[in-house]
DNA sequence: ACCTGAACACCGTTCAAGT
DNA sequence: ACCTGAACACCGTTCAAGT
């Protein structure tokens, strides 16, 4: 049973970290985050083992947004439009936040909180893919996890040439990737789909 | 006219940095690189303004490998196979080197050496795309720069779930993206192709 | 229990002193 | 002209001292 000020500080820290990461990227100092939260910097390490874990926690919070959107889209009429809207939202989440793409690339995939929410996104995505496939909108060899990885890829592609990815270039690559997902003219894939479990060890 | 030991040290530093970055990622310390090169760490900053610039220099050296491969493929008989082999080599270069994907994501696109070699890769890629297009192998709204960004994206997609990307999963996403590049069933793209110059300022 | 800030081992970068 | 390592300002993390 945690103390009242502890739960309050944890929340303050998460909020401050989310804001600082979003504004200044994942290299902001712990001191800065602690100051913004109004606590001593020692407190940060009482709530999170490491800076990476704090980043991971913020990261998976953001991913939960995407899970929520995906759940809602599960009940949409147009299964094809639903899947593509899901992907669009996913890329937007990446692009909105200065640290999100960095985090997606830098965070160890074995971080517990990251794995957990990645699993949940993949699960919703699976449902959306299945429905889109029944509607004949996507090829039958792609999975939900494929979708998650590809939308992250679309977001990252843009970073290589644009400092400030607030633009709309990502829409170009998302559209290209979506064309690759369609059943028309699909060539068999050389490698089986990944699973999250395979890398747990 | 630089002194003889200066040009020698510069080369030693580039080699040491390339090796250390490849083995340990882009977070290896300058001290470690300097030690491996057999020079004092002050010397590093005599040759490179900043650690980021050193990384950029190593990065664009690697990119030149891809330029060389692209040049050779320009004269291949099968234009379609040539383009796809170019992309395969590009992803392999990303995946081979522990730091390459990190660098692609973290380096400021305005770094001079990065911009320069990125421009040269895009140029070769343009030639390869044009030839592939004439052969009817790719849609007519993609450019060489698109290709470069997309092959980088394919490499990065894999990093999200696999610690050690020496595997072959990237082949799956490269194949998917290549399917999106084909003319069959291509939908018009919502956003025009990027140019490198646009972001110079 | 939890918070705090001084202390620690590191980092990238600078620069006075050497050759 | 170039090299060097001590010095500097910072960083993430630890921990003894406080409440």
From TrEMBL, chains A, B:
Chain segments annotated as coiled-coil in the UniProt record: none
Superkingdom classification of source: Bacteria
Gene Ontology molecular function, alphabetical: DNA-binding transcription factor activity; transcription cis-regulatory region binding
Domain HTH tetR-type, residue spans: 7-66
The entry's DNA-binding region: 29-48
Alphabetically ordered keywords of this record: DNA-binding, Transcription, Transcription regulation
Keyword Transcription regulation: yes
PANTHER family: HTH-TYPE TRANSCRIPTIONAL REGULATOR BETI (PTHR30055:SF234), HTH-TYPE TRANSCRIPTIONAL REGULATOR RUTR (PTHR30055)
Protein name: TetR family transcriptional regulator
Organism of provenance: Streptomyces vietnamensis
